[in-house]
Amino acid sequence: MPTTGAILPIPGNAEFLLYAVVVIFLIIVWAASDLVDARYFCLLLTVLTAFYFVSRGIVKASRVLEQ
Fold first, then answer.
1. How much helix, strand and coil, in percent to the nearest 5, is found in the chain?
2. Which residues lie closer than 8 Å to 65 by C-beta, 6 or more apart?
3. Treating both helix axes as pointing N-terminal to C-terminal, what angle do 38-62 and 14-32 enclose, rounded to 10 degrees?
4. What is the average pLDDT score of the chain?
5. Is residue 26 a contact partner of residue 41, using CB atoms and an 8 Å limit?
6. CB neighbours of 56 closer than 8 A, spacing ≥ 6?
7. Is 30 exposed, middle or buried, given 0-12, 13-18 or 19+ CB atoms closer than 10 A?
8. CA nearest neighbour of 56 among 22, 21, 13, 26
9. 6, 26, 31, 50: which could join 63 in a potential S-S bond, CB 3.0 to 4.6 Å?
10. What's the CA dihedral at 36, 40, 44, 45 to 10 degrees?
11. How far apart are CA 55 and CA 22, in angstroms?
């Protein structure tokens, strides 16, 4: 029986992997640098997370099938 509809990658996706790598990079920069304080780190992490959620929403919206 052929599969109809969108097929999602299992177990994860490339966007999450990139998000995790960037978060780890930000943590390293925050810990090693005097220029990045906690407030700036939180701002960067919030913006990054917002863009991640928007990108996931766009991807899911593009997979909606009209009937």
1. 65, 0, 35
2. 5, 6
3. 170
4. 79
5. yes
6. 15
7. middle
8. 13
9. 6
10. 100
11. 15
Residue 31, token pair as written in the block: 């810990």
In tens, the pLDDT along 35-61 reads 888 898 899 899 988 988 888 888 777
Q: Which two tokens stand for residue 23?
A: 């978060």
Give the length of the chain: 67
Q: Count other Cβ atoms within 10 Å, centred on residue 40.
A: 14
Residue in the block written with tokens 């996931």: 56
What value does the CA radius of gyration of the chain take, rounded to a whole number of Å? Answer: 17
Type of residue numbered 61: A
